[in-house]
């Protein structure tokens, strides 16, 4: 069903909100479950997101048994019946491509559709393929599919990544767990989700060392088994709620947020004049003074995350002074700028930088989420805009946020969701939000 978010600006957010499990952790972890030749994996704190359903469908199409109920996913990959990941699922989500490494290691061959995903740049996969080739795979491309074949077991190798790609690091790391000998990945990505994946692989019996640093060493083992694992909290969802608190002059406790994972986001908010108080269970954010402009440059972890760039830009629109936002990770991630402009924002894009004139009196408008984080940013702007903002393109937002309207309205925001053909009727602040069905996927293993 086509939906929209309706936001009426002007509410100060207060209270506590709980962060869900990280999308960018659970997706590679589900893919890695394909490596478990013995027993079942139980993945806890799995966020009920559309992307999680998509990757579950990919695993199901490969013959793995997968059930998804509440926030627990069970994967039984003892019997894989296919090593081909079809276009139908892979086109929907780029992260589906993460099954390539596990399938190549497990089956010695794989055929996989070229990935789709958010339109934030060309997003090549050359570094993934370079890694697989170094491990001994033959790669061929044709008709929108990539085929990889290895002559027997993959062989450990030294791989230097030209860019510290998150996905390539994960894909190569997974493939190398079952290779013969030692693999080292140099210039590896250091994101917390890489560490979570390495912890999961190690619990399955792998020997991965150095995850979270620029050099990861993987000693291949013969076999991996299913395990139970808790997914880390989503640092980008946490950052989005921190931004919601800051933009509304609020006082919000973001439960489950890990300050260590949010270093640059916390620093930038502090520079803007926001009080950020981390403790062992979460982060309290208090915004009781006008926000000051800051310059922001996105970088691979531990730099400022590209996935928080658009939300930060929303904050800068209402800050005092002029800010420069520079995007260095993706080449085309300013699509929210046009939509912000519909809300009376003053922004000029020059190459990889956006010059944001603060102090805008944002006006509610009909806008469209062009990608996941752009959608989150438009909702943030809507929280402080005068009047009503309608955000369409909700399917992008559903990829990465669990119950966003419900969580924000729990903090006092005036936000709800309607189906696109419904007229956005004026409501009282206490109008209940429409509750989305929790996705439940119950698939019987094909060999039962
Ligand atoms: C599911 C998931 O975890 N998604 C995250 C992951 O995406 P993803 O893993 O796709 O992002 P990468 O780290 O691979 O991409 C970073 C940069 O490297 C380039 N590149 C990547 C691979 C490659 O083979 N060649 C190449 O040139 C990309 O075009 C991009 O410019 O990390 C991004 C960067 O933090 C985040 O925005 C995404 O939310
Ligand atoms: C870009 C993102 O995700 P993906 O890599 O899955 O498109 C994101 O989470 O902001």
From TrEMBL:
Catalysis performed (reactions): phosphoenolpyruvate + UDP-N-acetyl-alpha-D-glucosamine = UDP-N-acetyl-3-O-(1-carboxyvinyl)-alpha-D-glucosamine + phosphate
Q: Where does phosphoenolpyruvate bind?
A: 23-24
Active site at 118
Give start and end of each Enolpyruvate transferase domain.
7-408
Record: residues binding UDP-N-acetyl-alpha-D-glucosamine: 94, 123-127, 307, 329
What the entry lists under InterPro entries is as follows:
Enolpyruvate_Tfrase_dom, Enolpyruvate_Tfrase_sf, MurA_subfamily, RNA3'P_cycl/enolpyr_Trfase_a/b, UDP_GlcNAc_COvinyl_MurA
Keywords recorded for this protein, A-Z: Cell cycle, Cell division, Cell shape, Cell wall biogenesis/degradation, Cytoplasm, Peptidoglycan synthesis, Pyruvate, Transferase
- Repressor: present as a keyword of the record? no
Subcellular localization: Cytoplasm
Where 2-(S-cysteinyl)pyruvic acid O-phosphothioketal occurs, the residues are 118
CDD domains (UniProt xref): UdpNAET
Q: What is its EC number?
A: 2.5.1.7
Please give the NCBIfam families that the UniProt record associates with this protein: murA, PRK09369.1, PRK12830.1
What is the protein name given in its UniProt record?
UDP-N-acetylglucosamine 1-carboxyvinyltransferase
Specify the species.
Paenibacillus campinasensis
Q: Please spell out the taxonomic lineage of the organism that makes this protein.
A: Bacteria, Bacillati, Bacillota, Bacilli, Bacillales
């Amino acid at each position: 069903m086509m939906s929209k978010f309706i936001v009426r600006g002007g509410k100060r957010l207060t209270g506590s909100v709980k962060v869900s499990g990280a999308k960018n952790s659970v997706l590679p972890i589900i893919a890695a479950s394909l490596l478990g030749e013995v027993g079942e994996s139980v993945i806890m704190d799995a966020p009920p997101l559309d992307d999680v359903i998509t990757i579950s469908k990919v695993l199901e199409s490969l013959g793995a048994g997968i059930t998804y109920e509440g926030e627990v996913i069970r994967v039984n990959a003892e019997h894989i019946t296919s090593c081909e990941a079809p276009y139908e699922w892979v086109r929907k989500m780029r992260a589906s491509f993460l099954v390539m490494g596990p399938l190549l290691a497990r089956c010695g061959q794989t055929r996989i559709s070229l990935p789709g995903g958010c339109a934030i740049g060309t997003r090549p996969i050359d570094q993934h393929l370079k890694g697989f080739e170094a491990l001994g795979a033959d790669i061929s491309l044709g008709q929108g599919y990539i085929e990889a074949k290895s002559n027997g077991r993959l062989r450990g190798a030294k791989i230097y990544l030209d860019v510290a790609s998150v996905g390539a690091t994960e894909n190569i790391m997974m493939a190398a767990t079952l290779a013969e000998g030692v693999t080292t990945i140099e210039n590896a990505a250091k994101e917390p989700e890489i560490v979570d994946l390495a912890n999961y692989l190690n619990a399955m019996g792998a020997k991965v060392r150095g995850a979270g640093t620029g050099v990861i060493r993987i000693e291949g083992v013969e076999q991996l088994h299913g395990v139970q694992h808790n997914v880390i909290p989503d640092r980008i969802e946490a950052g989005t709620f921190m931004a919601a608190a800051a933009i509304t002059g609020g006082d919000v406790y973001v439960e489950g947020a890990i300050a260590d994972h949010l270093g640059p986001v916390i620093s930038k908010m502090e520079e803007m004049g926001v009080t950020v108080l981390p403790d062992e269970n979460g982060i309290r954010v208090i915004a009781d003074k006008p926000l000051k402009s800051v310059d922001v440059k996105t970088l691979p972890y531990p730099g400022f995350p590209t996935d928080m760039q658009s939300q930060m830009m929303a904050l800068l629109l209402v800050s005092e002074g002029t800010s420069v936002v520079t995007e260095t990770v993706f080449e085309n991630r300013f699509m929210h700028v046009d939509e912000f402009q519909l809300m009376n924002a003053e922004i000029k894009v020059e190459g990889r930088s956006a010059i944001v004139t603060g102090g805008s009196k944002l006006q509610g408008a009909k806008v469209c989420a062009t990608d996941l984080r752009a959608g989150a940013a438009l909702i943030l702007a809507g929280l402080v805009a005068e009047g009503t903002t309608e955000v369409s393109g909700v399917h992008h937002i559903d990829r990465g946020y669990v119950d966003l309207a419900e969580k924000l309205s729990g903090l006092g925001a005036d936000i709800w969701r309607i189906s696109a053909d419904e007229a956005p009727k004026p409501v009282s602040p206490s109008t209940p939000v429409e509750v989305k069905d929790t996705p439940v996927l119950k698939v019987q293993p094909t060999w039962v």
